Amino acid sequence: PGIIVNNVKDVVTPFIVGGWIHSQDPPFFIKSGNFQGEIDELRISSIMRYPVAQTMAIVGQKLPNASLKIPYSVHLATDVAHGDVAWKLLAGTFPKGLDLDDTSGVICGKPLETVEDRTVTISATDSAGGTDTHTFSLSVLKGRLITTSLAPAFVGSSYQAILQTTHMAKPLRWELVDGTLPDGVTLDGKTGRLQGVPVARGRMRPSIQVTDANGFRRSVDLVLRVLPSHLRVIQPDKHTVVLYDWQGPNGKLIQDRMGDKQLTLTWTNMGGDMRMSWPGRVGRFPYDNMGHGEHGWGIKGQGNAKLDLKTCTKEWTVEAWVRRAGPIQGHGTKVDRTHQLFDYGHICGSYDNSKRGVWELYLSDHDSPDGSMAPGVHFLGARPEEALMDLHPWKRPKGIVGAPNEAGIRDTEWHHVAWQYNYAQDLHELFLDGQLVWRMKSPDGRKLVNNRQHQAQFSVSTRLSGYSRYGGAFNFLGFGNFFGQIGEIRISNIRRYQ
User: Fold this and answer.
1) pTM here?
2) Nearest Cα to Cα of residue 268 among 463, 456, 487, 490
């Protein structure tokens, strides 16, 4: 039998009583999971209140990892024991520095060696003679730095980030050993806190070292991006056509800030208020922590002129804040039985797996030279010869502006992506964090023609496979769903960035 490991972070699905939260109206039928009847008091306790075993048994808990040269203590437990319990090590050896107290059942001490999955077999005998044995696994780990990336900072705004460690003995000492920090930002040598108000845009590469009380040292090479102040909060103005900022009390209906109710987004399937905060953005934004397509968003209508960019007659900017959750997403079979690679993510647009719709803004690492994900665009006209596919730095490297390594995303922090187009010049531009990274005029010698009629929905996060409203074709486990968090999305009738 397996052991339950409760270590999932950032669970945004709400606590639910009596049924499943769903976009359907009316909701699921009873046969699909909703409770019929009454539910009385609910109580959650930090102990096992009622016996599980029929006879005295050792609780088969998973032992927490120990830290090298840091005091360790964990209390073993029994079920249905009568009177005092005597404990004994039957097989195996504890890591040097740890031992078992035979009366209290506590494994304690200060481990002096690192081990991985060391097994020990322990017996417990109660006053009535009941006995049981169980084999535990224990690891002793060296300290390490957890922080591998930093949230973006913004010119003129207060910045704070606390570097994190695990299995390191306090007090810790922090120092900058190479590179520089942005002007206005300092490192606190006692707390590992980066703080201050950066004064100029830039990309700094500080190397920071931490030393613990036992003399162990660890270091990390970081990138701290200082972005333009106007990217900190995406606001509506006279050039805004559509803006989704995801704020407000309702996590089910996300309205266009410009007031067009026909553009209201709602869940593609099951949901709940799955918005959460993450350093680098102001507000709460939807988070799909699986990437399997159920928790995306779509509008009710099809072929909307504003969302198809048909009201932008001279030029446009489509922009979004995105945060990928990592290179491997949950729910799939391509990596192992339950995971698959996150190599392509639909940010927004009406073009989808049904190959209908007009355009799609996405992230992809296809043909990437270093595994990083870069923003890209598909745009479709009415005829096949009007299709503009793979407008993307890795697919069309001749369009890269500047250093190629600055066109991709490697971390799990917030990044701003933007696509701009101008009819007169027939020019496409892609921006990452306010910096131009790709530009191409008339790709494949084709001029953009925005004349496609279709019956596809504008969607966010989920790359639909058909019509999805109240639990429709939301592409469960299919290709192209976004894994992570999507922030503000704005469509403008001007080119905002230079």
Assistant:
1) 0.89
2) 463
Q: Which residues have CB under 8 Å from 319's CB, separation 6+?
A: 234, 416, 417, 418, 419, 431, 488, 489, 490, 492, 496
Q: Give all domains of the chain, ordered by start, each with its CATH number.
A: 57-141 (2.60.40.10), 144-229 (2.60.40.10), 234-492 (2.60.120.200)
* Residues listed for the chain: 498
pLDDT along the chain (498 residues), means of 10: 67 73 54 75 88 89 95 96 97 98 98 97 97 97 97 98 97 98 98 98 98 96 98 97 94 94 89 88 91 88 96 98 90 72 96 94 98 98 97 98 96 98 99 99 98 95 85 82 97 98
Tell me how crowded residue 36 is: count the other CB atoms within 10 A of its CB. Answer: 8
- Is the separation of the CB atoms in 305 and 452 below 8 Å? no
- Integer angstrom CA distances of residue 337 from 65, 207, 290, 329: 26, 38, 14, 12
